[in-house]
Amino acid sequence: MNLNLIKILGLLLVTMCCIIATYTDVKRQIIPNWLTFSSFLMGISIVTIYFYQLNNFNVFYYSSIIIVYSFSYALWYFGVWAGGDVKLFTAISTLLIPEFFDVIPSFYIFNMQLPFKLVSFKIPTFLLIFNSVLAIIPLVICMVVVKIFTDKRNLIGDLIETFDFKEVFLSLNSLIISYNIIVELNVYHTILKIIILMIFSYLLSQIMKKEVIFSVISILIFAKQILTNNIMFYFYDFVILLFILTLKNIYTKGIVKKALTRDVYKKDIKEGMILAYPLYYLNNEYYFDKTSFLSDFKNIISKKDKGKLVCGIKSSGLSLQDVHLIKNNLNQEVIQIKEGLSFAPFILVGLFITFSIGNTFDLIIMLVEMI
Q1: At 37, is the pLDDT very low, low, confident or very high (cuts 50, 70, 90)?
Q2: Measuring CA to CA, which residue among 300, 297, 298, 280 is closest to residue 288?
Q3: What does pTM read for this prediction?
Q4: Mean of all residue pLDDT scores within the chain
């Protein structure tokens, strides 16, 4: 059998698997076992035949499937996604191998060849997970904005406050100064450069919080950009940072959670609903913990007792036992429920990003270096 035909068949099967999973996940909120199990078996068979024809038994391929499953299972255990997503990613890992990607035609955008360094990613399923997360961010933000202007207008003021122009100028000035320091230190290693850049920019941003220092440095940097004809690059970097920091503020201010939650009466709670906040039991009382991740981390360090976790916010939602517990023991009548999102559509979009753009992880690192 022609090796290129095997590669094309493998990529077509993984695409069809994601399309069907998207349909069933949106239509019935389920990824059927027949789909994931059949895709898993076909993937193992096709890739084994491929390696057999090459007379090459690739142990790493079979190990990578176990690695993907373990990683996906761990995220399911911590409530990041549902069990169907674990099985889907495991099935995908049997078909998505670097050797298959060389049949994808390349093209150029702004003198850059795409897909970008796709074959170099050793376990492509992890790249797919990364690209799926990239795909979910803009859609969730759009959903939040629409939700705020249609149903939750009380959050409009909070949304406007996320556009913090002073924070953008502060961050941009810090990055520019930090980058010049790195150049003088002759740091060339990409990861080391990014780490040093983050440390220096953070320290400088703390120093520049004083109004006088901030104003003087901003004027000097702006003047330098004009004199060196780099004012357009400065503007581009400003827009990029404005977008990134606005997304960060939308998340840290809890706007996403507030916009994508709804109030449900306790008597109307049903199996499968996802709590907006985890439910704990402490001192003979049930309560919802609304502290942020950072505050939660500080509590762990200080060994503050939060009590026993009764119901988490797993994507699989409340069990029937959880529903009975809440109805029979919780005093408050209104419960905040998170609006769940089907993840399979984002996996499909992530797959198209992977096939068209390629190794977005390395691409982002390269763009950070350019900034």
Answers
A1: very high
A2: 280
A3: 0.72
A4: 84
Please state the rounded mean pLDDT for residues 187-211: 78
Quick one: average pLDDT of 338-355? 88
Q: What is the DSSP string of 109-126?
A: ETTEEESBS-TT-SSHHH
| CB neighbour list of residue 68: distance below 8 Å, 6 or more residues apart | 89, 90, 93, 123, 125, 126
Residue 233, pLDDT score: 78
Give the residue carrying structure tokens 């990029």: 240
Tokens, residue 80? 């990041």
User: Which pLDDT score is estimated for 303?
Assistant: 58
- Tell me the one-letter amino acid at 301: I
Nearest C-alpha neighbor of 336 from the set 274, 284, 291: 274
Residue 252: CB partners within 8 Å, gap ≥ 6? 292
For the packed helices 211-227 and 165-185, what is the interaxial angle rounded to 10 degrees?
A: 70
Residue that has been written with the tokens 């003198």 in this structure? 111
Q: In the chain, where does DSSP find H-type helix?
A: 3-28, 33-53, 59-77, 83-95, 124-150, 156-161, 165-185, 190-207, 211-227, 231-252, 255-259, 293-301, 320-329, 344-356, 360-370
